[in-house]
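Sorry, I am new here, but would you mind making up a protein's amino acid sequence and the tokens describing how it folds?
***
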Amino acid sequence: MTTSELVGSDERAVVEALRTSVRGAVVDRSDPGYDEARRVWNGLIDRRPGVIARCGGTADVVEAVRVARSHRPVVSVRGGGHQVAGSAVCDDGMVIDLSGMRAVHVDPAARTVRAQAGATWADVDRATQLFGLVTPGGEVSQTGIAGFTLGGGMGVLQRRYGLACDNLRSIEIVTADGVVRTASREEHPDLFWAARGGGRGLGVVTSFEFALHPLGPVVREALVFYPYDQARTVARGWRDLTAQLPDTVSPEFVLWSVPPDPAIPAELHGAPVVIVAGVYAGDPADADPVLAPLAELGTPLMQGGGELRYAEMQQALDPAFPAGGRYFFKSHFVGDLTDDAIDTMIACDARRATPQSLMVIRTLGGAIDRVGAGESAYPHRGARYNLSIDAGWTDPALDDTAIGWARSSWGALREFATGGVYVNFAGLDEDSARDAVFGESAARLDEIQAAYDPDGLFAAAARRP
């Protein structure tokens, strides 16, 4: 028997075992829906798993883990399928697909929400905003809650309410032995510690319970567009301002291109632009004195924002990052945003390969740093900023150019960085070194993963960024 015949034989055994035990759909290479089932948000990812188990609930996950334990294929776990590096899907192995598990339940009295692992932030926001409550989520509403939270989870409310992982109250997880466990501060606290920033490779998290905070349904946002030739002045002013603003705002600085929005004059579409943004995480009536300085850093080209519904604000960027586009993100954590760092960033942006690409500086600190360094696996507390280099394009012929721009820009900015890597913006495979991703948490994470998965069933998921 040849190697390919042996692999094929093993794959057929896995498919048959899943079909006899999983109630959800089991999709293999011969299925007409195979190409759609293996597709993830990032069109750059083109992996071909042997089988996809589309789980309908926790019981299906338990059966899929049991089959994986018996047959030992490479395993990946799909939540929303939105992670840039495409970790949701593997080549030739088994995808445990939770994307159909999207139920969300809000307890307004307890101010908690429990959401299944296939839910997106749009699903969560829709449910929680009925009660004027939020938990910090992503900046694109189609992002899945699972990978986002397990990797940390930065968003527009982070200085007021912390990262997504800081708002976790418990998780339900199926570990490698097929046991369903609840992990919280009281139950399996080691698993709970790991899930907050280092949760990949621990097992299959099937649901998340988050704390909720009063905000919305209407919020106040500053969204200021400045001419590109003011980038240096605006960036330096923005940096100085971030040291003074209260935790009720998590300001962002963006180098991008004017989007093709019908509300914006057509002659500006595609032009390079500087964007300064911030959402006030409090009573909109109190927002103006805090947000007004964001419009005083230069001579604005135009302004947006104002009062709008929180759920709509969270969906505003969705059209700029459509499913099927091609994406490659890398980032640095930065302590001190020096003039030289700003100048280097602007020089790198001037070589940007496509108008869809952008560079973003997110302000950290506040509630993020009020979580003790040893309280969770997330290791990057104390950094003042995250600088993200986000390449976006549609034409496969531009793959090398766009990825090359992001990599070279990341390299040029490395001297200004802390050396840490944010797992949710980790390129493809080049940023997977555990010391960079998990820092001082790496050794303890290895111990916990060895305790709950001694045979390495989820080893591939743990290694993949």
